[in-house]
Amino acid sequence: MSTDSDTQSESDAREQLIDLAAEFYDQFADGEVPTMSIPTRTKSNIEYDEDMDVWVYGDRKSTRSAKTVSGAQKLLKATYVIEFLAQQLEEDRSSTLRELYYLSESFDHEEAQFNSQDESNQLIEDLEIVSDVRREEFHMRPEESGATVMGPLLIREQTRRGEREIHCQEDVGEGGYQIPNNPDTIEFLDNDADFALCVETGGMRDRLVENGFDEEHNCIVVHLKGQPARATRRLTKRLHDELGLPVTVFTDGDPWSYRIYGSVAYGSIKSAHLSEYLATPDAQFIGIQPADIVEYDLPTDPLSDSDVNALESELEDPRFQTDYWEEQIELQLDIEKKAEQQSLAARGLDFVTDTYLPERLDAMGVI
Amino acid sequence: MSTDSDTQSESDAREQLIDLAAEFYDQFADGEVPTMSIPTRTKSNIEYDEDMDVWVYGDRKSTRSAKTVSGAQKLLKATYVIEFLAQQLEEDRSSTLRELYYLSESFDHEEAQFNSQDESNQLIEDLEIVSDVRREEFHMRPEESGATVMGPLLIREQTRRGEREIHCQEDVGEGGYQIPNNPDTIEFLDNDADFALCVETGGMRDRLVENGFDEEHNCIVVHLKGQPARATRRLTKRLHDELGLPVTVFTDGDPWSYRIYGSVAYGSIKSAHLSEYLATPDAQFIGIQPADIVEYDLPTDPLSDSDVNALESELEDPRFQTDYWEEQIELQLDIEKKAEQQSLAARGLDFVTDTYLPERLDAMGVI
Questions:
Q1: Which residue intervals define the domain Type II DNA topoisomerase VI subunit A all-beta in the entry (chains A, B) (predicted)?
Q2: What is the distance in angstroms between the Cα of A203 and the nearest Cα belonging to chain B?
Q3: Which of A48, A102, A261, A324 is catalytic?
Q4: DSSP one-letter code for B32
Q5: Mean local confidence (pLDDT), A63-84
């Protein structure tokens, strides 16, 4: 982590954190009860930002105040964590969310120790929101890293051991290039890509690579590995914004997979404060669409009760309130069926790469 | 897949499958009712093979016979799958277990189609057992691939796109080298390693890499990613058998994690037919040991009822019937506590690499 921009963002992150602690100090000095105010994080408090083209938190706020014992404890914990993070950045170290939870056992004030990892995770999210600094810039890592990339892309990654130049087809095995926890350590050097294709399942990712889809269509295949990690979503956004590549998302045809698309395109409610950094609003959904289930006569499973509930909840979700999604979701509720992306194999192992994807990409205007 | 040995094993696999179908044919020709006999796959039918040093199936067998309608359907499905696999090998293609399930929809005989993926998975396992050929040699892929490797190891991977030479420290990003679905496509070219350390969680894997543990101790860090995939276990075994490296396993300190160790060292009951290929009987458990919870005074959680049940069931499991495991499990039932590997962070972020692992590795005679 030695580029100028990294050093800059780290010292900014450190300053923002210290400013936050200074605010508590000033509140004390002025004889005020210290408070911290953060946006309410519920579905009813997210709204569309037309300028940035993403969903963000609205104006409703909750206040953490030292007026109550539990509020005071929260602010105490915040100051201990700020001290830890500031020191971590000073030493150019990093840690995981779980390590932070355990580390709190070594805090000298027992009231500052966390009772559960939910509590420490939540505090880190609060600090992200109020300081406007992302977790990655605090050097906090998730438990599991991002997934893999295969495609005509040459990158340079800044590692702790020096720079690595890697071509994501020629310098990797069949498993592809493993996305690091913080993909902002990656610089795009060169590419020969026409679009990015984000794929939900490992089985389908392997099918596309085996069939040489990335080579034939100059396509960067990004494995989402189910609900994508932040690192995967961040890299996808950068492929779109910095390289100008159309981003397409290929998942199973069920409500849980539409949420995967939603998290790539719009971000999640829980992390709407990160939409600007993680969301790719121009990302297009390839399928499996309910219309595909009908058109390609795919093998299906019946919708379960929880599938139906999830679809109905999506009809209420601001992220899915478009003509396209309303039509597709209504159709699915009507046919009462869902299909997996690998069900395309019922038409043969090459159907997805020879027929389905080219037809869909053509219809979407991507190729 | 173009090395001589690969081509050899593929044509062997094809022959074994065709022999199996020929056996049904001969049974028919001789006026016998066709049958297929496979070992019973339960805990009571696994036994220790002293020569190979692994747990394998005992002598108890179940028979699939065409005497009943359901037995006849099973054998019919087996012949269709054998035909598909033989053709797949002929064409040097591969497919996932899930694709096979969907592909069966295209079988011309409706009775040969699978009713669930459990059924097709089970059939592939049966075919592995009776033909003595591994799924990988049938070119059947799992849904999710193996995990990652970081360490002083130079490999050559045979990919469909040609050979790739990759040094697992110098040619990879912080994410490491992604293990391919079939690690037998890897050739070990050179290494400077003293041992392998298999790590359960991503957070701990990242800690070791950040702290440069692989560099300082000439250690190959293999991320298990929870219950390890077959590809990960196969690679681990090869590191031991071909490079003569001691293999150590580092997990959380709870009964579910001991099973992760068990699957690396002894294989699983469900796949005892693969122990010879996947198990590393010399693999040593580093911890977190119940004794460590006491010695290092680690932050803990209380054992749940299901933890207690799992520990008691391990006391009955032939794989854990050693003095060491009985002592550790009894101790854990006594203290009624469990600890995660990242709980070592309560002693600081470097405690695991500066103190805990060196002490344990020294005590185990590895370093």
A1: 143-192
A2: 5
A3: A102
A4: P
A5: 91
- Please give the pLDDT value at position B233: 94
Distance from the A169 Cα atom to the nearest Cα atom in chain B, whole angstroms: 9
Domains of chain B: 4-141 (1.10.10.10), 148-363 (3.40.1360.10)
Alpha helices in chain B (DSSP H): 4-29, 69-90, 97-103, 117-131, 202-210, 213-216, 230-243, 255-265, 275-278, 290-295, 305-316, 323-335, 351, 357-363
- Residue B38 is inside which H or E element, if any? strand B35-39
CB proximity under 8 Å: B 178-217 to A: 178-181, 185-186, 201-203, 206-207, 210, 212, 215
Q: A284 Cβ partners below 8 Å, 6+ apart?
A: A246, A247, A248, A249, A364, A366
CB distance from A73 to chain B under 8 Å? no
pLDDT of A39 > 90? The answer is no
Band of the pLDDT at B8, cuts 50, 70, 90? low
pLDDT in tens, A200-258: 998 899 999 999 999 999 999 999 988 898 899 999 999 999 999 999 999 999 999 99
Mean pLDDT of B12-36: 89
Q: 0.95 exceeded by the pTM?
A: no
ipTM above 0.90, yes or no: no
Taking CB atoms and an 8 Å limit, are B212 and A344 in contact across chains?
Answer: no
**Cβ-proximal residues to B259 (8 Å cutoff; 6+ apart), any chain:** B227, B310, B314
Q: Which of B113, B120, B144 is best to mutate for the A interface (most A CBs within 10 A)?
A: B144
